[in-house]
């Protein structure tokens, strides 16, 4: 540490070190400034994007004890659990449940139940390719495996390599299996125009 000497008029020598110790001792005796309270962050609530109106039951009696959908009288004991929900107390079915019901009612195309011989006969008579009958029988292509033939790569793997035949087989297979028949027709037209 270097000492800095300061000469005063009377000849007294003071050191800078003694002054700095004086100021440090003075700072230690003072209390630190009080801490500020952290600001509370207020996040504004936004309105829900989908507004679902509350379901209002329609009562048939003036005292509002019986609703239209079921005879739901007020329970005598408020703490008793209902063993069975009344129809008016059930929540409406979700879109997922409604769409699942519609899809379950749809039947599968009858072509999915075909045997290997039926697929080979269909290919020979309706589509007009009897030369591929052996390919179908050798690769055991039945009705459920007929879905795989909607892909041109799968057709080349079972030894259907003629491009013109593939262009005819793809929409015919899609039509029988319930695939995208219309889109296959459009694709087939575009391929025919291109080539």
Description:
This protein is mostly helical and 195 residues long. It has a domain at 110-193: Transcription Factor, Ets-1 (DNA polymerase, domain 1, Orthogonal Bundle), CATH 1.10.150.50. Helices cover 39% and strands 3% of the residues. The protein has 7 helices and 2 strands; from the N terminus they run E-E-H-H-H-H-H-H-H. The protein has helices spanning 16-29, 95-105, 116-127, 133-138, 152-157, 163-176, 181-194, and strands spanning 5-7, 13-15. Strands 1-2 form a two-stranded antiparallel ribbon. The chain is elongated, with a radius of gyration of 43 Å. The N and C termini lie far apart (94 Å). Residues 114-170 form the SAM domain. It holds the Pfam family SAM_1.
Provide key terms for this protein.
single chain; 195 residues; mainly alpha; DNA polymerase, domain 1; 7 helices; 2 strands; 3% strand; elongated
Oligomer: single chain
Helix content: 25-40%
The first-to-last residue Cα distance is: 94 Å
Superfamily (CATH H level) name of the domain at 110-193: Transcription Factor, Ets-1
Tell me which CATH architecture of the domain at 110-193 applies here. Answer: Orthogonal Bundle
């Amino acid at each position: 540490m270097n000492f800095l000497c300061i000469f005063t008029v009377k000849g007294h020598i003071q050191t800078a070190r003694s002054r700095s110790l004086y100021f440090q001792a003075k700072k230690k005796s003072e209390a630190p400034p009080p801490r500020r309270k952290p600001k509370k962050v207020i996040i504004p609530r936004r309105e829900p994007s989908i507004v679902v109106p509350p379901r209002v039951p329609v009562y048939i009696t003036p005292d509002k004890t019986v609703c239209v959908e079921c005879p739901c009288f007020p329970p005598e004991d408020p703490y008793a659990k209902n063993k069975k929900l009344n129809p008016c107390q059930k929540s409406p079915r979700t879109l997922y449940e409604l769409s699942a019901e519609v899809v379950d009612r749809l039947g599968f195309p009858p072509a999915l139940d075909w045997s290997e011989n039926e697929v080979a006969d269909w290919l020979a008579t309706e589509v007009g390719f009897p030369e591929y009958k052996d390919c179908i029988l050798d690769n055991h292509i039945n009705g459920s495996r007929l879905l795989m033939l909607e892909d041109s790569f799968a057709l080349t793997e079972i030894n259907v390599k003629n491009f013109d035949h593939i262009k005819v087989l793809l929409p015919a297979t899609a039509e029988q299996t319930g695939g995208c028949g219309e889109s296959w027709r459009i694709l087939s037209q575009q391929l025919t125009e291109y080539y």
